[in-house]
Amino acid sequence: MINKHLKSLLNMPAFLLVVATTSFNVSPIAHAEPRKRNVLLICVDDLRPELACYGASYIHSPNIDQLASKGRVFRHHYVQAPTCGASRFTLLTGRYGGASNNALFQRSAIMASDPQSITPSMPAWFRQSGYRTVSVGKVSHHPGGRGGKDWDDDDNLEMPNAWDRHLLPAGPWQHPRGWMHGLANGEIRVNAADMDLFQSCEGSDSIYPDGISVDEALRQMDQLSSVHDKPFFLAVGILRPHLPFGAPAKYLELYADAELPPTAHPIKPEGKTTWHGSGEFMKYNRWNRNPNTDADFALQVRKHYAACVSYADAQVGRLIERLHNTGEFENTIVVLWGDHGWHLGEHAIWGKHALFEESLHSPLIVSYPGINRPGDSTNSIVETLDLFPTLCDLTGIPKPTFVDGISLRSLLDNPESSGHPAIAYRANAKTIRTNAHRLILHKDGYAELYDHTSEAKETKNIADTNAAIVKQLTEQLQSRLGN
């Protein structure tokens, strides 16, 4: 329920969605002095680890690259699920969960009926530990954190008790659902077949949805930085490069003459896999063209995706610049996290939702003043689950005992430290990624085993000739997921 007194005190514009929630009944001890480090968590939707700081030299990502130069790039970070809602569940709870986009709403429903059975979310834990917690944009699955027809129902919260304020300025896109699938100047998706797959219009950053949501994030950062009685946990969700691929024309111009590398293994795999027909992508207006059979169209798609990445990068730059201007940069941990990967034609997939490498591999950068060996990257495998305990470790608040991940502090101190295998799942299959292999185990017991030390990587299933490895990795999967 909205706290009307708080809303009036903060004098929020009418187009903002605001939640002030009650505190959780299980609280770690809060410490007022000395003031702890702030956290700026930047969540980017559908972002592949295809950035200049990850070795993609043709991508223009100067702001993310600058952040990487001051922190630690995790080159082998994997999410728990190849879909937005389930992946964000694990980020925000630190626990394995459901495989659907409704995972957080399902958690909310259980909280309503049996609150003692649900452990605190990451923002709730920080809130209980003396932090102001604010979310802007798409941080949980629904921008603004509500359900209902247009995702704006104040009585249907995605994450109760988590945020002091959970905001989404819909602007000309009318409501959070419209903002989520919006193109330039307020165009919202009614029928995907009538909405262009990609678009690039002349204008400022604010003609697309991220521009106005980041404007609000900057206002929130100013407000949080002006009050020094508590540290802040500010989460900002950047929508692009989510479909449809819309970004101001100046970002597409960066790629007008760019030479993009060839797409790796673009052929549809044979045999049983988690391949799918790219339904989320194909339902948009594609002008009767298919990137799997039309090389020129595939290149256009990739360039528009790249333009969206550069647009997202510009929003990251605005956030970091304002953090400097507030004087809080030296006391803030900055995390940039991609909610999952995205296929751009690999395995003849355009999208996520598979359990191949491209769907599960996403960027993770952690930066803070005083980090050891800033700019060095690590090749050790880590998971999204690890962020909750890591941020507790870095801020000095109590580390929860109920999370499934582990702190990455050792890798932040020494990038050569060991990582650990990564687990992921979807409704009908689950997978484990080690340094050498990926095992995908289907619900009916069928196994895909891929050798990442070979040139074939995830194009040749070697399960039939490597029963011992399949057995070993299956046991690890069952041990981690409990089934």
TrEMBL record:
First-tier enzyme category under EC: hydrolase
Entry GO MF terms: arylsulfatase activity; iduronate-2-sulfatase activity; metal ion binding
CDD domains per UniProt: iduronate-2-sulfatase
PANTHER family: IDURONATE 2-SULFATASE (PTHR45953)
Record's keyword terms, sorted: Calcium, Hydrolase, Metal-binding, Signal
Signal peptide: 1-32
Calcium keyword on record: yes
Entry cofactors: Ca(2+)
Keyword set includes Ribonucleoprotein: no
Gene3D superfamilies from the UniProt entry: Alkaline Phosphatase, subunit A
Gene Ontology, cellular component aspect: cytoplasm
Sulfatase N-terminal domain ranges (all copies): 37-397
Top-rank lineage group of the source organism: Bacteria
Protein name: Arylsulfatase
InterPro entries (alphabetical): Alkaline_phosphatase_core_sf (IPR017850), IDS (IPR035874), Sulfatase_N (IPR000917)
EC number, UniProt record: 3.1.6.1
Family: Belongs to the sulfatase family.
